[in-house]
Amino acid sequence: MEKIPTEESLKAQKSILDRLNRIEGQIRGIKSMIEKGTYCDDVINQIEASRSALGAVELILMESHLKNCITDQLKAGNDEEIESLFKMVKKLMR
Amino acid sequence: MEKIPTEESLKAQKSILDRLNRIEGQIRGIKSMIEKGTYCDDVINQIEASRSALGAVELILMESHLKNCITDQLKAGNDEEIESLFKMVKKLMR
Amino acid sequence: MEKIPTEESLKAQKSILDRLNRIEGQIRGIKSMIEKGTYCDDVINQIEASRSALGAVELILMESHLKNCITDQLKAGNDEEIESLFKMVKKLMR
Amino acid sequence: MEKIPTEESLKAQKSILDRLNRIEGQIRGIKSMIEKGTYCDDVINQIEASRSALGAVELILMESHLKNCITDQLKAGNDEEIESLFKMVKKLMR
Fold first, then answer.
1. What is the pTM of this model?
2. C2 occurs within a structural domain
3. Per the count of CB atoms within 10 A, which of A31, B55, B85, D21 is most buried?
4. How much is the ipTM here?
């Protein structure tokens, strides 16, 4: 069953897409820095900024994943969902 | 209601305490390195090893937290538990 | 003074650009997952994969930064370079 | 040649030892939580706090390592020191 998107969920989706567009722009910026042979200090800082920005998107999705998907699945008795959550958290803790 | 510990849970507890004892020993070792003025490269590597060892304990507890506490709480309708899980994951992702 | 690129350095540059192109493709893939409303588990795993891939590029650049830029700058007496390296390492350790 | 410790370096050493003593106390606290069967949420948060505290000590040592050891070694022509720094940074970035 597909859920009908609410106005709020559409706004959240738009905000995530905006962030991802900015990150895509950052990656392109890093490519052109590498092509021009920019001093590595700046490139590393720029990569670190993109990783942070991706981390922020991940956090938004994680909040929604926990509060919606995981909660619903566990209540529906799909306990194996917690195993996939644990694998995900394990990767984050690496 | 207190749960009667199973043989398995006592073994798990013992294994975690063994790990924590080793970590406590590592911290004492780091203190004596600092007191002796040991070359910083070795001290940093030793601290990094203790942090990894703590991370391994954290992962064991996290697995049990997710598979027992979180699953039980959500099924009992305590949805606010997911908020505290999100805060925890947020810290790990920092 | 601009350094004349060696064959080896051109190969390294090409390999980094290839990696960044793949990452750019991954980001576009994540955007289309979000647009389609893909189940959040998969999206989070995909973001985590992109962050790892960026981390791998960062490591390649870091190695070159340390072995070339930092070494040269310190030998030339530019000790302030170590301050900017410390700031960078601090961000990585967050 | 052993360096004669300055008043400043003794103060720094004392501050690091104080931090390590607090961390050792935290580890003992975690052990007694585990022995008492404390709710895992609190234990995980406490472990995370100890890891952060160790990270803070690591950062202090890293600053001194970069500004003293690494700078001196590179100036003395011991270029292989940068290889061990890279290995250390690699571990931190994991």
1. 0.86
2. no
3. B85
4. 0.87
